[in-house]
Amino acid sequence: MTVEWILTPDRLSAAMGLLAAYTGMCWGIGAKVRKQRLADEAQGSAPEGKTDAPAVLVVYSSQTGQAEALARATAAMLTERGLQVRLLAAQKLGAELLARYSQSLWLLSTTGEGDAPDQALGFVQGLMASQPDLQNHQSLVLALGDREYQQFCAFGLQVHEWLQACGARSQVVCVDNMDSQSLQDWQGLVTQMHQSLQGGKAGAPVSAPAQDWLQTPAAVPMVLSQRKLLNPGSQGGPLYWLEWKPQFGALPQWQSGDLVSLCVPADPERARDYSIASTPADGSLQLLVRQSTREDGSPGLASDWLCRGMAVGDVLPLTVREHAGFRLGENAGRPLILVGNGSGLAGLLSHIRARVQQGCGDQWLLFGERSPQHDALYGEQLQTWLVQGHLARLDRAWSRHATQSLYVQQLLNREAEEVVRWVERGAAIYVCGSLQGMGQGVHLALQAILGEAQVDAMLASGRYRRDVY
Ligand SMILES: Cc1cc2nc3c(=O)[nH]c(=O)nc-3n(C[C@H](O)[C@H](O)[C@H](O)COP(=O)(O)O)c2cc1C
User: How far is the CA of 63 from the centre of ligand 1 (A)?
Assistant: First the structure.
């Protein structure tokens, strides 16, 4: 099917309005909620809310931030309505703490091929491998996933089954790519739980309409100010650099590692995430987008719109999404080993730029692409940073090199001793790019170089972070 788009100003603003509303509904866990952000409590600290109020535990595990944002919004809503809420990441949950609660909410995404988010590894191998007694415990599980993956919502479903096996009464809602119906169902169930907890209490607040606490529009209309093909003549798909400026006012704020979420007019039902390649100090929001082709040869809807359909000067609502799992966070002071391929350079570039701006050059980039003739992305810029000392090392692997074909995981293996030295020196590892091939290959290489136990420990503690897709 071909969709013809003739963009009159009226149509554009109507489409933008729709997109902004939709994007806001999907992702907008906005300023209001962030202001009330509940700190991640350590195990012993007191929950938020009045001390005689019913208590609820809210547990999350998230790879790209959606489950975490929904958990924060859910916890903030329950706190606002008078419950004592303890919000924490799954890896911080122990059996003793869980046993203290008779109500729990779980917001969990699935990553990889049916896997738990990276930081949940400790929870999976620890608490989930045991069977605490949860008789008289009620739980609700929100399992985030995407039906395009074979093991739909696998991790959320595993936790739901584990809770049941421990004796809890558990209900689960599976969400397909943040579909609004399932999110409404979730809000309905949480509202019911809240009402039953407050049951009959004089002065209990009347519930607001079920939907409203997950909705805060946060999409910003942005103008595509420049677009450039980065790899003319490449055997791979065309890779474009896209620069965006706000249509009105100031740039939205974000940190290196964060994502942008957007819907395109040809597929307004489905939001896509892209790693941001710049920092706000660069003065624009920049993305690297590969124009993709599906198996049947037809163009990928979103990437085709971004790379060819849109004209420079057109406007699209973009939502900046915090990606806590790939930010520098506690690793800000560490040396960095940055590993990636293709459009994954975006997520790594934002970190390099952030560190260049801070005057910190203790970072090593290992990067894979096809050929040095056509795919030397940011070649001059990277070389300049190396010469200026903003990069301590730069190693590139070319998979289609005439004489020295190499993948980035092989490069890691070749540099194994240096990798060990950097890690001993306290380095954190960031990987960005394709999951198939690169992400998995790099993981295996790191296991071979550092040992499985150390890789697991680094993953669980956030010293090894991945943005692979
Ligand atoms: C690399 C990657 C792998 C994924 N694997 C699965 C999967 O195996 N099963 C599934 O149902 N969803 C999968 N998803 C979809 C995510 O679970 C879904 O986008 C979810 O909303 C992300 O939530 P989070 O931001 O909290 O991690 C995957 C997403 C990505 C980016």
Answer: 8
Q: Is 194 left (phi over 0), alpha (psi -120 to 50) or beta?
A: alpha
Residue with the smallest CA separation from ligand 1 atom 18 is 145
Ligand 1 pocket check: which of 29, 58, 62, 64 to mutate, most ligand atoms within 8 Å of Cβ? 64
178 lines ligand 1 (CB under 6 A): yes
Residues 6+ apart with CB under 8 A from 380: none
| Cβ–ligand 1 contact at 440 (below 6 Å) | no
- Three-state secondary structure call for residue 320: strand
H/E segment holding residue 195: helix 180-198
Q: Is the CB of 146 under 6 A from ligand 1?
A: yes
The pLDDT of residue 199 is: 74
Distance between CA 321 and CA 218 in Å, rounded? Answer: 9
Which helix (H) or strand (E) is 454 found in, with range? helix 452-461
pLDDT at residue 134 tops 80: yes
CA distance 300 to 59: 35
pLDDT tens for 67-82 read 999 999 999 999 998 9
Regarding the beta carbon of 152 and ligand 1, being less than 6 Å apart is answered yes
Q: In angstroms, rounded to a whole number, what is the distance separating the alpha carbons of residues 68 and 329?
A: 16
Percentages of the chain per state (helix, strand, coil), in multiples of 5: 40, 25, 35
| Centroid of ligand 1 to alpha carbon of 296 (angstroms) | 24
145 CA → ligand 1 middle, Å: 5
End-to-end Cα separation, the chain, in angstroms: 27
151 lines ligand 1 (CB under 6 A): yes
Task: Give Cβ neighbours of residue 77 (< 8 Å, ≥ 6 apart).
Answer: 190, 213
Q: What is the pLDDT of residues 169-196, one digit of tens each?
A: 999 999 999 998 999 999 999 999 998 8
The residue behind tokens 């819907």 is 263
Q: Could you tell me the pTM of the whole model?
A: 0.84
What domains can you pick out in the chain, each with its CATH number? 9-25+217-322 (2.40.30.10), 29-214 (3.40.50.360), 326-468 (3.40.50.80)
Task: Report the complex ipTM.
Answer: 0.99
Q: Give the Å distance between the CA of 109 and the centre of ligand 1.
A: 6
- Test site for ligand 1: of 59, 74, 106, 144, most ligand atoms within 8 A of the Cβ: 144
